[in-house]
Design a protein that fits this description.
about 150 residues; mainly alpha; 3 helices
Length: about 150
């Protein structure tokens, strides 16, 4: 059982790497939509008006970026739990006839793997959190301005 949990940690690690890079791609796309239009907020003359199509694309992209980020952070939170589960599964196998050192080693390996994965992804998270928050803030600003323009018409 602990071996299965270790394999699960490795597979989930690879999957979360893919989710991270997909999230980066979504953030870049979102920034590509909002940056040219929100330069006006910082005093640079820019085209602010959104077309209906751009508005739909912006909402779609912002929703996907948020959803993928939530998936990434939730998977990251699972790693320590899988490590603890592997530890408990290993320690449950202990009995007078079992090899104590092998079970104890298996317990430590799953705990270590889960914690290392969580630490790595928490560090990776710090690279995208600020960018995503900024892009979503700018998207919110643009959508608000778009809604105001629609109400005035």
């Amino acid at each position: 059982m602990p071996e299965i949990i270790t394999v699960m940690i490795i597979l989930l690690f690879a999957f979360n790497i893919a989710v991270f890079y997909f999230n980066l791609k979504m953030i870049k796309k979102l920034e590509g939509i909002v940056r040219p239009k929100t330069d006006r907020r910082i005093g640079i003359e820019a085209k602010l008006k959104l077309s209906d199509e751009e508005s739909r694309e912006l909402l779609d992209c912002a929703g996907k970026a948020s959803g993928v980020y939530a998936l990434f952070t939730n998977i990251t939170a699972v790693f320590p739990l899988l490590g603890i589960l592997g530890t408990v599964a290993s320690l449950m196998r202990l009995s007078g006839t079992d090899d104590l050192s092998a079970n104890f080693s298996s317990a430590l390996i799953t705990t270590f793997a889960g914690l290392v994965a969580a630490i790595i992804f928490k560090i990776m998270d710090s690279f995208i959190t600020a960018r995503l928050d900024s892009a979503l803030d700018e998207a919110d600003y643009l959508i608000h301005e778009y809604d105001e323009e629609k109400r005035e018409q």
